[in-house]
Amino acid sequence: MSKKAIIIDDERLARNELRKLLQDFPEIEVIDEAANVNEGLEKIEQHQPDLIFLDIQMPGKTGFDLLSELDRSPQVIFTTAYDEYALKAFEVNALDYLLKPVEPKRLADAIHKLEQVEREEELETPIVNRSILNENDQVFVKDGERCWFVKLSDIRLFESVGNYAKVFFGPNKPLILKSLNALEERLDEKVFFRANRKHIVNLRMIEKIEPYFNGGLLLELKGGEKIEVSRRQAVKFKEMMSL
Asked: Which of 67, 45, 52 is nearest to 18 (CA)?
């Protein structure tokens, strides 16, 4: 496992200390740093890292603000001096939550979680390992004792739930052990569209499109789900749909 990482923290000494600790983990390559949210967004856009070490309290905007502005989120390990944000951190699907000063053992645990998630995705994914899946391909979905072979064209929505994805087809919504980013790499972008950080929609399952807050859009799917398209993705969506 080799992962590109960016450290986002307004404290230079904290960034330096974390870099030093990460030298014991050659599988993690720190490719850049950022001292605030705006700089962090630029570096993420530029480098497309696999992992970010993210402080929460920073001048101007918080680490949570940064995540809300991303359409595709890398894995996130929070590093903060405050313990009161732990619950919210896991609500936004953070891999781990490390209190400053970061202890080497806790950092090792977090890196181990990253490796474990990657291994589980590789071993248990129900999505075949071909580079791009055709909409007529069938995928195997297993939820407990229940199993389905589902045509991709029948899936109207994928929703991120931590390191899993909820698959919406017919009345069913089983979970599969596959991240949204990994799914997006294999889905045909002409059919499946990344609406925001948590959702990929089947363009052919859209029944209604409405304007939404801050230049975004609201999609209503055939199953009744209403999905927000982020402002950034709305521009791409309008170009694709010639709106």
From this structure: 52
Q: Helix (H, G, I), strand (E, B), or coil: what is residue 209?
A: strand
Q: What is the CA radius of gyration of the chain?
A: 19
Answer whether the bond into residue 101 is a cis peptide, omega within 30°: yes
What tokens appear for 155 in the block? 């899936």
Q: Report the helix count and the strand count for the chain, using DSSP H and E.
A: 7, 15
Hey, which residues does 159 pair with through a beta bridge? 166, 199
Other beta carbons within 10 angstroms of residue 189's beta carbon come to 13
SS3 at position 69: coil
Asked whether the whole model's pTM tops 0.70, one would answer no
Measure the N-to-C terminal CA separation of the chain; round to a whole number of Å. Answer: 42
Lowest mean pLDDT among 44-58, 176-190, 200-214: 176-190
